[in-house]
Amino acid sequence: MKIKETPLKDCYIIEPTIFEDSRGYFYEKFNENKFEELTGMNGHFVQDNISKSSYGVLRGLHLQKGEYAQAKLVSCLEGKVYDVAVDLRRDSPTYGKWFGIELTAENKLQLYVPRGFGHGFSVLSETAVFSYKCDNYYNKESEGSVLWNDKDLNIDWQLPEQDVVLSEKDKLCPAFIDGNF
Q: Tell me: the pLDDT tens digits for 159-174?
């Protein structure tokens, strides 16, 4: 696997080495030792989550705070999503910056989103199955969020706004300027 830096501190793209032949393909999705060697960061995950969504669904921007903060390794197992990470660590040189990447079943790319980041994705295909590996357990009381269309962040979700489908919870997230994350 190859690790590529993004413009955000500690946020990485993981590109697998794919072995293909007439039978199909094989690749190593993740290797904790290689990840730690190449990034110097902990790559131990304790919880796996899968979601399935339809075109236009936008999930985010979410994070876990405090002792339940989570780093995530995300990928798209079926379909195509536009995945976004936002650095919400106030002491970071990339605080308030975002990075987006298309993750697809075909390109098999993954994005490592460190603790202290907001995360979300929009579904660009008819449906998408999305995978999250988390390095800490989910805790409802530790949820944080930022409004998906915050004017200060100005994220391009790669969807026409009239196509965006949100949960009621995501419609009510605080603005970035409020700093409630």
A: 999 999 999 999 999 9
Look up residue 1 and give its two tokens. Answer: 């696997």
One of 62, 82, 112, 119 is an active-site residue; which one? 62
The structure tokens 């339809």 sit at 54
Q: 26 and 19 in contact (C-beta within 8 Å)?
A: yes
This prediction has a pTM of 0.95
Query: Is 119 an active-site residue?
Result: no
Q: Is residue 62 annotated as part of the catalytic site, yes or no?
A: yes
142 three-state secondary structure: helix
Distance CA 132, CA 120 (A): 11
Q: 137: which residues sit within 8 A by CB, 6+ positions away? A: 46, 47, 68
- pLDDT 10s digits, 118-137: 999 999 999 999 999 999 99
Which of these is catalytic: 12, 82, 112, 132?
132
